[in-house]
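Please review this one.

:::
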Amino acid sequence: MEIQQLRDHSPDKFASIALAPKGRTDAQEGNWRAQEKAIDDWLPINARRNAKWWYSAFHNVTAMVGAGVLSLPYAMSELGWEAGVTVLILSWIITLYTLWQMVEMHEMVPGKRFDRYHELGQHAFGEKLGLWIVVPQQLVVEVGLNIVYMVTGGQSLQKFHDVVCHDCKHIKLTYFIMIFASAHFVLSQLPNFHSISGVSLAAAVMSLCYSTIAWIASASKGRSADVDYRLRATTTPGKVFGFFGALGDVAFAYAGHNVVLEIQATIPSTPDKPSKKPMWKGVIVAYIVVAVCYFPASLVGYWAFGNKVDDNILVTLNKPKWLIALANMMVVVHLLGSYQIYAMPVFDMIETVLVRKFWFTPGLMLRLIARTAYVAFTMFIAITFPFFNELLSFFGGFAFAPTTYFLPCIMWLTVYKPKRFSLSWFTNWACIVIGVLLMILSPIGGLRQIILKIKTYKFYQDYPRND
């Protein structure tokens, strides 16, 4: 969709009119509003508003159930049975509650929709402060996840290659990351959430399939003869750092809040049928799928292998080869969809800045250059730092916990102002305390993981093979 420049105004003149609404004439006001509506209709988040509740379901599954589910048995080995089960259940309940709050707040102001996370933050904290609070944290999560998915997609392709062709010449991880990225150079040109629905649906199905394969294969293998359920670390500092790192791994598994408002923006809304009803229906279905994926994979994987489980359960499961190869390809398909789900809000931010701040003409060329540059950037970082998972467990701890656990609660207290000492008041403050602890503790555990990985990593050389 090409948007032509207004006939009566140059970009500079148009900018001055837009920034000084009190000085506009009626004709200029009409031109300005028409231009703004045309830009809104072009941007990815606002382009289509005809999604159904099931779109919400599989988009949220794709956003939530990432390849991180395969590391949950490893997190259990650093938490132990009691703490591990408690953390898994509490995280599921708390994040469902905070997600419900965000769905409710999407249309808290009559006649207005907060289509983006930062718009809700601006309403709660103020125009400028809201941007500074929300946008940096949201970008850390979304861009960070895209880089992690680049690394994990390359690793899954490499694992598939090594399983089906064990005697073949070893190929560096760098090349598999580039192969995985090549698909995104194409998929990133899909304009909006509606256009990636097919990819997202396939990704949601694959996430359910490979997590099911992980726990069924573990159950079929049975409990190892020398299984040990003591904590993985043997020293007190190791146990403490491992515990903190495991909290970050679990928090990493619930990152869907960063795109939930953008997903809800695709659903039509009227006073009689607000978007929160179909959105919440889809969220409930998504969280049931999340439970079906997370809990069996975590508990059965830890039950079968104890503290000997790898940080990716599919690495621990080497047989049957055909099934493990299939599961790794399912991970690749899922990551294709997950990358796009988290990239779409970033594309929206980039294109909004280019069009509204720098006055580029919206169109195919702008989208082609901007999105290709973004995919190239995430690919470059993934190739340079293929231990980025550990980096994200450190830096992401400052962003995952706020955007998922306590920012929604703070905004709820700020906007809805529940009665002091009421159940809602106590619940939100409890979630805030838990989120703050996660934000402080998980980076500490991530720092230890970074140090351990850097000791075994040589820059510009291949990441060490797991075999």
